Amino acid sequence: MITAKDIKNKRFEKAAFGYKQEEIDEYMQQLEADFRAMEHDLEDANAKIQLLADKVREYRADEDALKDALLGAQKQGKHVIAEANEKAAEILQEAQARAEQLNDEATRQHEQAMAANRAEIDREKQALIVAQNQVADFKKSQYLKLMYVWGHSYEFDNNDNWDVIENFCKYMGGRDDIWYATNIEIIDYMDAAKRLQFSADYEKVYNPNACSVWLQLNSDKCVEIEGGTLVDLNTLL
Length: 237
Known about the structure:
single chain; three-stranded antiparallel sheet
C-alpha cells in the first residue's frame, strides 16, 4: 500500500525532452497532501471504530451483568413474595383463631350474664309476689302497712319483663281495702298523723286535720279518726 511518505520520497530519473520537473513536483506535493489527509481520516476512523468496539464490548459486559442482576432480582422477588404470602397466611390464620376465641368468650360471658339476669329477675318476681300478697292480705292481719312501688320504665324494656308490672297492677289494682297514694299524699298523711292531739292519759284524741287518720288500738283493731273530731278511744275498744 502506497503511503504519503512513499510519494514524498519518490524520485524520477531525468531524461531529455521529458515532463517538466516543476509540474511533476507540484503534482506530487498535491498527491502527498491528499494522501496525508486520507491517512489522517483513516486513522481517525480507525480510532472511532476502536472506541465503538470498546463500547460494544463494555455494553455487552454490562448487558450480561444486567441480565444476571435481573435474573437474580426475579429469583429474589419470587422468594420475597412467597415468604410474604406465607407470613400473610399465618397472620390471617392466627387472627381468625383469635377472633373465634374472642367470639366464643364473648358468647360465654353473654350467656352467663343473661343467666344471671334471668335468675335476678326470677328472684325479684318472687319477692314482688310475696310483697303483693302481704299487702293484699292486710285486712286479715289488720296491721297498717305501706308498700312503696317505684321504678323506671326503661328497666322493663331492658329486662323484658313488662308482664311483671302488668300482673302486679292487675292483682293489686281496684281494691277498696287499699289506699293508693302518691308521694306527696303520703307525706301529707304523715304530717297529719303527727298533728294528732292526745289527752294526758291517751284515752282521747283530737284530729285537727281535714283528712281522716287511722290508728291501731291493739293487735287486731284499727280505727278511723275523722278530721275535726274528738274521739274517746275507750268507746272504740
